[in-house]
Write a structure and sequence with these properties.
Elements: H1 2-30, E1 35-38, E2 42-46, H2 49-58, H3 67-71, H4 76-98, E3 107-112, H5 115-126, E4 134-137, E5 142-146, H6 152-167, H7 174-186
Length: about 200
């Protein structure tokens, strides 16, 4: 009987050590993880709450306005809701402009804190340097942007690339896809009829 008690105590100690190790490792690792927000059509990834707020301020697409929002500072939960609403509205408007509305996998939108991080991502993906302000990468269904250099037209343009590449059975030539994505950006604020 004492033998089993000793094993039980040893297992309890080992379990505690493993648990504490996981807590400390996970705790330090969790600080490096991006802030992830899931919307109806996208998965948004920000490095910080501040990046999310910067993004929200940069995307001026049917932002909600009320007396309360004029006289108060929004909480991070309010900012999160506004970001979700804006991004989904932009996605749906891009689908409407392109007349390409069908269910598809969520598009990941990776928002980098600055241009250096954005260009590092480009180099990792393409194994070469580049100087793009943003792009869509089909292989992982992800849009890459810089929170300090983004606006609603740019986001809609890149989401347009994702919609085009995932809607058509065969991906169009690059020049054709670019023309269609530019069309989204150019007609973003126009009233459109649904067919």
């Amino acid at each position: 009987m004492q033998r089993w008690l000793w094993v039980k105590q040893l297992m309890s100690r080992n379990t505690l050590v493993v648990f504490l190790s996981l807590v400390f490792v996970t705790g330090s690792y969790a600080a490096d993880l991006p802030l992830i927000i899931t919307t109806k059509h996208t998965i948004l990834m920000f490095n910080t709450e501040e990046d999310m707020a910067t993004f929200n301020d940069s995307i001026k697409y049917e932002a909600a306005s009320s007396l309360a929002s004029i006289f108060s500072t929004p909480s991070s939960s309010d900012v999160r809701k506004e970001v979700i609403r804006k991004v989904d509205l932009l996605f749906e408007k891009a689908q409407l402009i392109l007349d390409m509305r069908k269910p598809m996998n969520k598009v990941t939108v990776r928002m980098h804190s600055n241009e250096v991080q954005l260009q590092e991502s480009f180099k990792k993906l393409y194994q070469q340097g580049g100087n793009l302000r943003g792009w869509y990468f089909f292989d992982n269904n992800t849009v890459y942007l810089n929170v300090k250099d983004v606006h609603e037209g740019m986001l809609a343009h890149e989401l347009g690339h994702a919609i085009i590449d995932n809607f058509l059975s065969v991906r169009p030539p690059r020049a054709t896809a670019e023309i269609l994505a530019q069309y989204v950006d150019a007609h973003l604020f126009e009233e459109l009829r649904k067919y």
